Description:
By secondary structure, the protein is an alpha/beta fold. The protein is built from twelve helices and twelve strands. The protein has two domains: 13-239, Type I PLP-dependent aspartate aminotransferase-like (Major domain) (Aspartate Aminotransferase, domain 2); 241-357, Aspartate Aminotransferase, domain 1 (Alpha-Beta Complex). The strands form three sheets. It has a seven-stranded mixed β-sheet, sandwiched between helices. A three-stranded antiparallel β-sheet has the order 7-6-10, with no helix packed on it. It has a two-stranded antiparallel ribbon with strand order 11-12.
Amino acid sequence: MKSVSFAPPAIGIEEYEAINKVFSSGWLSQGPETDQFEKELAEYIGCKHVIVVNNGTSALICALLSHGIQPGDEVIVPAYTFIATINSVLSIGAKPVLADIDSQTWNTTPELMKKKVTEKTKAIMPVDIAGMAVDIDEFEDFASENNLIMIEDSAESIGGEYKKKKIGSFNHTSIFSFHMAKLITTIEGGCISTNDDEIAQKIRSIRNHGMEGKYHYVNFGLNLRTTDIQSSIGRIQLKKIDQFINHRKKMVQIYRDRLGDRVSYQKIPSYISIHPYMIFSIQVDGNRRDDINTYLNHNQISTRMWPSIYKSPYHNQLFNDEFPNADKVANSLINLPIGNGIKENEINYVCDILLKKL
C-alpha cells in the first residue's frame, strides 16, 4: 500500500463527458446547466428553492445576508466546527458567539446555545458535524420561541435524513458544500436551500452583485456565482449520491467491525434516519491521540484533525470563554480516510496499522 488519501472522490467518464458537452456548447459561465442543477437539487432535497454558489462559505454568507444579519448582530455558533462557520459571520461584520457542544454527538444543542442568548442575538447557526444532523425539531422550536433566525450549516450533510426527511427541506435556511471531500462534488461549490420565496429571491440577487434585472442593483451583493462546467459535474454526481452513501456506510461498517470497542465513535441519536458519513472519526485517549495520528501519517495514511476554533492564533483574540466539551472532542478525535473513491483494501490497511498502535 503506497498511501491512503483522506477523501478520494469518485469521478468517472460520465463527468468528463458532461464537461465536454458544456465546452462544446460555447457557454461556460453560470447558465442553463446551473439552472438545471438547481432544479434537480431542489427535487432531491424536497424543497422549493436551491441556489448554487461558488463554495460553501459563500453559501453561508448569502444565507446570513438574505436574512438581514447586520454588523453588530450576534450569531450563536458551535465552538467545534470548521472555521468557515465563524469566518462567514465575521465577514459581514456580525459577531460570532460560541456555544459548547455535546461530548457524545459532537453537535451543539439548544440548551447550550440558550446560555449564550442576549438582546443582540439575531440568529443561531448549528452545524451538522461529520454530516450528522442536529436535533432539528428542537432547534426550530428554540429559534421560534426566542424570535431568532435559524440557519443550518449542513455543509457536510447532503443526503442525510432527520426523522426520514432530507436535510435541507425544513422550515429554515440550510447550506451545503460541494468541495472535493463532500458527498457530491463540483470540485468547489455549494448551495442554499429554502422554502421561502423572498429569501430565495434575495439570495439569487446577492450572489450576482445584488442585481435584479439588467444592471439594476437592489441589494448588497458579490460575485458568488458558479460555472456551468462545475454544475455539469454536480448533475452527474447527484445521480450517484445514493450509491456514494451506501459505499460510505459499507466502509464505516468495516471500520467499526475491525476496530470494535478499542476506540469510541460519534453517538447517533434515534432521530437520525441516514448518516451520510461525510467524515468518519474515531475518539481515542487524548494523551495518545497525537502519537497515534503521527504513526498513521508515517505509514502513509492521510488524516485530519480540527482544533477548537477559538484556539487558533487569530480567533483566540476574539473569544474569552472556555468550552470544555469542544476541547475534549477536538483533542481526542482522528478523522480517518473515507470517500466515494476509497477502496475496501485501503480501509483494511488503515485498520491493520491502527490496531498495531491501539
